[in-house]
Amino acid sequence: MKLLTHNMLTSHVKGVIKGYPLLIKATEVKVNEVEFNPQFVSRMIPKLEWSALVQAAEELGQRQDLPSDLVPDYETNEEFLKKVHRVLLEVEVVEGCLQCPESGREFPISRGIPNMLLNEDEV
Amino acid sequence: MAATNSRSCLQYLIHLAHDHLDFRLPEIKALLSLRGKPFTPSENFKEKCPFWCLEGLSEEDVCSVMARSVCAKSAFELWGHGQTHSELRTSLLNYPMENMTPFMRKDSTYRINVYTFNKTLEFADRIKRIDALDYLPFEGTVSLKSPQHVFCLLEDYGTDPNNIPEHPDYIYFGRWIADGQRELIRSHSVKNRHFIGNTSMEAGLSFIMTNHAKVKENDLVFDPFVGTGSLLVACSQFGAYVCGTDIDYNTIHGKGRSSRKNQKWRGVDENIRANLRQYGTEKMYLDVMVSDASKPVWRRTAVFDAIITDPPYGIRESTRRTGSNKDMTKPCDESHVPVSQEYHLSDIFSDLLNFSAHHLVMGGRLVYWLPVYRPEYCEEMVPLHPCLRLISNCEQTLSSHTSRRLITMEKVKEPEELDSLAHLSDPRFSPYQGHNAFREKYFSGLNKKCAKEDNKSNNLSQ
Questions:
Q1: What pLDDT is attached to residue B220?
Q2: ipTM more than 0.95?
Q3: How would residue A74 be classed by pLDDT, with cut points 50, 70 and 90?
Q4: Of the given ranges (B217-226, B329-338, B363-372), which has the lowest mean pLDDT?
């Protein structure tokens, strides 16, 4: 699971109000090299909840020097875009789970794939 | 001054493949729309004909369309046309000389192709036709192998293979600009793909769907019924970053029984990511997840540029969602596998439209297949949503009594609280309710056929 995806996911457990962001408990994390595309990263930044991204990168020990706030004029700041590219697309959770911050319900991640299915009594 | 005026009035001839006829116009319109250009056909435009003449475009526009289209075979700068060779000659002699000369220089090489639609021509007759064009001021040398400029004489012998006329209905002559992407149909054939399922979408239609959705480079695309990822493969090919979900754990993980004839179980490298890797687009792979499309997992402000999908029809793949009709008093333990109940077809589509209204960018498109029981189909059955505008509805016949329709919708309005319930009072919501019985009707058609054949053989044996 990549952090770009994680940034958009929320807990949908019945009755939960504050289900975002999901906490990440990772047992295996991989960092792959993915071709840097500054246009794509620039397009994705407005879609992100920046603090949730920083928190997730922190949870995985992959934050490095990612700033707590968005840098102004990021579209032309290649150095900054490269940092964002790395956390969004190169860091991957292979094994672990996502946890609903309110109910504590865990969604397992195996082979990089989250399983978001709820049981019948939770829907 | 005269040169720029005459170039801006250029017409382009698009030669289309005679396949998926209903899907062609929406594809070309969508691709022109990506260039901000309208579809402006010349007079006497016939949609079912394989030759379309378009106006108001630049050569760059045409090249961009051809770089994406799988419906179009080739595009030409139209120099002349007519119902007879004599009319063609007049038309060509009227074509501004200054538009011809840049491509006919002494030091250049060229070749002329002859193409006939719905007729086979002997080699000798092709040569005759090329020779008959000697009134054109070609000054360069003919090179069959690698000419700088290619010209084409195209003859249309109508669309009835059982009634081929002696003389063509219409003739065109133009300078070749570009070919379409029909090669992708072969190179991305599902037959050679690492990971397939029983209902993997064929390559041609996958690319057509991508084009109907106006997917462009650096888009974010989502498929909520992703299966084996055929639609993601197509979208990634055109530069979009892709993600998907599916309720089926085995399909998402690439496990379980193989869909191939001589293979029992799926191999290690059979999954959606491997499919993208096969075609060199792994960098566009975001994620796939096991998830129930009726219970979306995205935060309210998560938006996609396009949603492209082929929901289950309940025939070859079952329609499922988590939930149980039983009274749930005991909580489930860890090893419990979620029970699924039937996901009624009309709910699938109203959920899909509602999801799209909330999770598409403004102007973003939803493209999906709607299964239809033909004897009862009417246009009012196509699901609607106040935030989505219907762009196109293209039918692909599956059998005498069933077909599926490729529906394209575009988000034109942000949803407010009321809208998610508005469809309940919309009369168009109910007609498709009957399609919950699509599965029964599909099989009842088959049963009737089997019963008829049984009766026939019974009668014969008497």
A1: 98
A2: yes
A3: very high
A4: B329-338
Whether B322 and chain A come into contact, CB under 8 Å, resolves to: yes
If you measure CA to CA, which chain A residue comes closest to B331? A121
Structure tokens at B76: 């030409």
Beta-carbon contacts of residue B123 (< 8 Å; ≥ 6 apart) = none
Which tens digits make up the pLDDT trace of B68-79? 999 999 999 999
Subunit contact A47:B302, Cβ cutoff 8 A = yes
Contact B241 A116 (CB under 8 A): no
Which residue of B289, B299, B301 is in closest CB contact with A113?
B289
**Window from A42-46, B240-244, B348-352 with minimum mean pLDDT:** B348-352
pLDDT of residue B141: 94
Q: Which residue of A lies nearest to B303 if distances are taken between CA atoms?
A: A47
Handedness of CA B140, B143, B148, B154 (dihedral sign): positive
Partner residue facing B322 (CB), from A1, A37, A118: A118
Domain B184-322+339-425 CATH assignment equals 3.30.70.260: no
Report chain A residues whose CB lies below 8 A from the CB of B220: 43-44, 47
Interchain pair B298, A10: CB under 8 A = yes
Mean pLDDT, rounded, of chain B:
87
Answer whether B105's CB lies under 8 Å from B193's CB: no
More confident residue, B427 or B302: B302
Contact between chains at B220 and A121 (C-beta distance less than 8 A): no
Domain boundaries B11-179, CATH class: alpha beta
Fold of A3-114: N-terminal domain of TfIIb (2.20.25)
- Spatial separation of the C-alpha atoms in residues B431 and B441, rounded to whole Å: 15
On chain A, the residues whose CB falls within 8 A of the CB of B240 are: none
| Cα–Cα distance measured from residue B411 to residue B229, given in angstroms and rounded to the nearest whole number | 24
Local structure of B244: helix, strand or coil = strand
Identify the three-state secondary structure at position A97. strand
Domain locations along chain B? 11-179, 184-322+339-425
Q: Using the beta-carbon criterion (under 8 Å), do A120 and B339 form an inter-chain contact?
A: yes
User: A88: distance to nearest CA of chain B, Å?
Assistant: 9
Instruction: Output B6 or A52, whichever has higher pLDDT.
Output: A52
* B-chain residue closest to A115, CA distance: B290
- Alpha carbon B197 to chain centroid, angstroms: 20
Q: At residue B307, does pLDDT exceed 50?
A: yes
Residue-range domain boundaries for chain A? 3-114
Half-sphere exposure of B370 (CA within 13 A, CB side): 31
pLDDT digits (tens, 9 = 90+) for B396-431: 999 999 999 999 999 999 987 555 555 554 545 545
